[in-house]
Design a protein that fits this description.
By secondary structure, the chain is mainly α. It is built from twelve helices and no strands. It starts with a helix and ends with a helix.
Length: 380
């Protein structure tokens, strides 16, 4: 049986050991933890650690970074908690709403945290790097970054909603500079050859209005002067009729500059109709019997050109067929006198050979293309 004295001595020894725990781990009696309630120092220190954490990190916000179970004295633990709490203050400054999942405790220096946070801003607000010219180094507030992103999006939605021109609005300080850059591209696309110089892209705030203005003038050109032969700029005219009148003046200057015909150019809306009317007038005036139907009128620009050729044919006829025996041979079908004279001489030769006495007055050698046809006609 254990003696009373031994029991007392064991109890005193146990208490002295427990007092040493307190002296070692809670010397200032700062934490209300009774060392006598615990059988081992480990249990006692764990109880103290709970008090330390309750005091320094009651919400266990830092337990993944400052693990209280790894500390054997309060001062070291408290010092590290203070260090990490100072890092949390970075978030209060940069991300007070905890909107982005970037924990400042993961970074040793504030600048590293800020760079990571700004990368998160970029990933969230501009994931496809549409606005690459926004310099995050110059921005210290996510709201400022959001405002800049929204501003650039507004510019793009208003002026290039389909991103057709691939111009990043963030490279410009104001909207006018951005639109000016777009205007240059509009000009290049819709008026590359500067055919519509009077339509100034600077007067338009969006592509559709500018392109519609160009298309409107282009429709006039396609309607009246598709190949822009007369080099008139439709955009110089306020209305379609003014442009057409200018073209009519060009037609007049080209085909009838001396007003030698009675055809009024104002009666015609197309160059072709006007020219056809002139040709008919020439024929009715100078060849009313339509004796010359082989002329290629595309070769004639004015009535003078026509009259030169017409008079040449009349002279050929006087020289080769003064009596008009071979009038069915259209001199206008031939380019020169030699060709025409050859045809006359052929018919004369056929006639002299097969009908020298002119017995077949009803058979005209001019009605046949070759001698055999003519000869066979005579035999019938």
């Amino acid at each position: 049986m254990i003696s009373r004295k031994r029991i007392i001595r064991f109890a005193i020894g146990t208490m002295m050991r427990q007092d040493r725990w307190e002296k070692k781990y809670n010397a200032n009696h700062q934490f209300d933890v009774n060392q006598y309630d615990y059988f081992t120092s480990k249990e006692y220190v764990n109880a103290l650690r709970e008090k330390w954490q309750d005091l320094e990190d009651p919400e266990c916000e830092l337990e993944d970074y400052v693990d209280v179970s790894k500390y054997s004295n309060y001062d070291d633990y408290a010092c590290d908690v203070v260090e990490y709490k100072s890092r949390l203050e970075w978030r209060d400054q940069w991300d007070c709403d905890c909107e982005f999942e970037v924990n400042p405790c993961d970074f040793e220096y504030e600048e590293y945290y800020v760079k990571a946070l700004k990368r998160a801003w970029k990933k969230e607000l501009d994931p496809y790097d549409e606005f690459e010219y926004i310099d995050l180094e110059l921005i210290d507030d996510v709201n400022e970054y959001k405002d800049r992103i929204d501003e650039c999006k507004e510019w793009k939605d208003e002026h290039d909603s389909n991103d057709e021109y691939n111009v990043d609005p963030s490279q410009f300080d104001d909207e006018d500079e951005y639109v000016d850059a777009l205007r240059q591209l509009w000009k290049r696309k819709y008026d590359y050859f500067n055919e519509f110089s009077s339509i100034d892209p600077n007067e338009y705030s969006n592509k559709d209005d500018y392109s519609n203005a160009i298309e409107n003038k282009k429709n006039w050109m396609n309607k009246y002067d598709k190949d822009n032969v007369y080099k008139l700029d439709p955009s110089d005219y306020d209305c379609e009729e003014e442009y057409l009148d200018a073209l009519r003046s060009c037609w007049q200057d080209k085909y009838d500059p001396s007003f030698k015909t009675n055809i009024d150019v104002d009666d015609y809306d197309t160059e072709e109709d006007y020219r056809n009317a002139l040709i008919l007038d020439w024929q009715e005036t100078f060849d009313s019997k339509h004796q010359f139907n082989g002329f290629n009128f595309d070769k004639f620009t004015t009535i003078d050109d026509y009259l030169v050729e017409l008079n040449d044919r009349l002279n050929w006829i006087k020289e080769c067929d003064p009596e008009g025996k071979y009038s069915k041979i259209d001199a206008s079908n031939y380019d020169n006198l030699i060709q025409y004279k050859h045809q006359i001489n052929l018919r004369k030769a056929w006639k002299n050979k097969y009908d020298p006495n002119n017995e077949h007055t009803n058979i005209d050698p001019c009605d046949y293309n070759d001698v055999e046809e003519y000869h066979n006609a005579l035999k019938r």
